C-alpha cells in the first residue's frame, strides 16, 4: 500500500449538479499535471458508448484525455499501458463480472498497488475497489464468478449511504440494518457508509474523508460511529484492524 493512490467517490452526480461536478476539483488535484490520459472502464452500464462519451466530455473539460477500455481490442494491455484508471458507476455485479471476464482483476491490482498509478472509482467503481461487493446496493442481475473484488483497501464501502427517514412508512430494512446483517457473519471487515457528496482519498497508508456530507463507520460487534469530512481513516488500511473483533 506504500504507493497506492485512490479517490473513492460515493456518487457520480449530486442533486442539482452535472456529471462529476461536485468532485471535479478533487479529481484535478488528485490526478495533477503528470497524468495526461485516463483509462475509463464503463462496464457497469449496458450502453458503454454513451457512457464513454459522457465521461470523455467531462475529463476533456478538466484537461485530460480519456480512452475507454471497451474500445480497446486488448483490455489487459490497455490496463498495462494506462497512466490512471477511472471506473464509473452502474450495476456492481455487471461491472465485477466484466472485470473477471476480461481478466482484469490481477492487472488492475498490480498497476495500482505495485506501479502506483492513480485509481478513481465512483459508486460501483468504488465498491469494486474494496474487499468485496457484499455491501453494494445493487441487484445481482448477472452472476460474477466471485463477490471478491479488487481489494485495493482491506475494508468495504457502502456508496450512496442513506440515513433512516423517521417520517417514512416503508417498513423494509434500513441501510444500517442491512450492513449490520452483513456483520452478523464471521470475519467480515469494516464497512464505511459514504453519503452522497462524500469521497475517501487514499495516499499510501493515509486515508482521509473528503467532500461535504460525512460518513458512518460500521465495525463488527460495535455501535456505528459518525464522521465528518477531514476525518483520518488511516487505521482502516491496516489489515489487522484492532477495532474489528
UniProtKB/TrEMBL annotation:
Compartments (UniProt record): Cytoplasm
GO function terms (MF aspect): dipeptidase activity; serine-type peptidase activity
Cellular component per GO, a single term: cytoplasm
GO BP annotation list: proteolysis
Keywords recorded for this protein, A-Z: Cytoplasm, Dipeptidase, Hydrolase, Protease, Serine protease
Superkingdom of the source species: Eukaryota
Span list, region Disordered: 222-245
Chief location: cytoplasm
Broad class of enzyme this protein falls into: hydrolase
Catalytic activity, as annotated: Dipeptidase E catalyzes the hydrolysis of dipeptides Asp-|-Xaa. It does not act on peptides with N-terminal Glu, Asn or Gln, nor does it cleave isoaspartyl peptides
Keyword Cytoplasm: yes
Any Pfam family the entry gives: Peptidase_S51
Catalytic activity, EC: 3.4.13.21
InterPro entries listed in its UniProt record: Class_I_gatase-like, Peptidase_S51
Function: Hydrolyzes dipeptides containing N-terminal aspartate residues.
NCBIfam families (alphabetical): PRK05282.1 (NF003642)
Family to which this protein belongs: Belongs to the peptidase S51 family.
Name under which the protein is recorded: dipeptidase E
Record gene name: Aada
Amino acid at each position: 500500500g506504500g504507493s497506492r493512490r485512490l479517490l473513492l467517490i460515493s456518487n457520480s452526480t449530486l442533486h442539482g449538479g452535472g456529471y462529476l461536478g461536485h468532485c471535479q476539483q478533487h479529481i484535478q488535484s488528485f490526478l495533477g499535471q503528470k497524468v495526461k490520459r485516463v483509462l475509463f472502464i464503463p462496464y457497469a452500464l449496458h450502453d458503454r458508448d454513451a457512457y464513454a462519451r459522457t465521461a470523455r466530455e467531462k475529463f476533456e473539460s478538466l484537461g485530460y484525455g480519456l480512452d475507454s477500455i471497451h474500445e480497446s481490442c486488448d483490455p489487459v494491455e490497455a490496463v498495462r499501458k494506462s497512466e490512471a484508471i477511472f471506473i464509473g458507476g452502474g450495476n456492481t455485479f455487471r461491472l465485477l463480472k466484466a472485470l473477471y471476464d476480461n481478466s482484469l482483476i490481477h492487472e488492475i491490482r498490480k498497476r495500482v498497488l505495485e506501479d502506483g498509478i492513480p485509481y478513481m472509482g465512483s459508486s460501483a467503481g468504488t465498491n469494486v475497489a474494496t474487499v468485496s461487493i457484499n455491501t453494494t446496493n445493487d441487484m445481482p442481475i448477472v452472476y460474477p464468478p466471485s463477490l471478491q473484488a479488487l481489494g485495493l483497501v482491506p475494508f468495504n464501502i457502502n456508496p450512496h449511504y442513506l440515513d433512516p427517514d423517521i417520517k417514512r412508512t416503508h417498513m423494509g430494512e434500513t441501510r444500517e440494518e442491512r450492513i449490520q446483517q452483513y456483520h452478523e457473519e464471521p470475519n467480515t471487515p469494516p464497512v464505511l457508509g459514504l453519503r452522497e457528496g462524500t469521497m475517501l482519498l487514499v495516499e499510501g497508508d493515509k486515508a482521509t474523508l473528503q467532500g461535504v456530507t460525512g460518513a458512518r463507520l460500521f465495525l463488527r460487534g460495535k455501535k456505528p460511529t459518525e464522521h465528518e469530512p477531514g476525518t483520518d481513516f488511516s487505521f482502516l488500511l491496516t489489515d489487522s484492524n484492532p477495532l474489528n473483533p
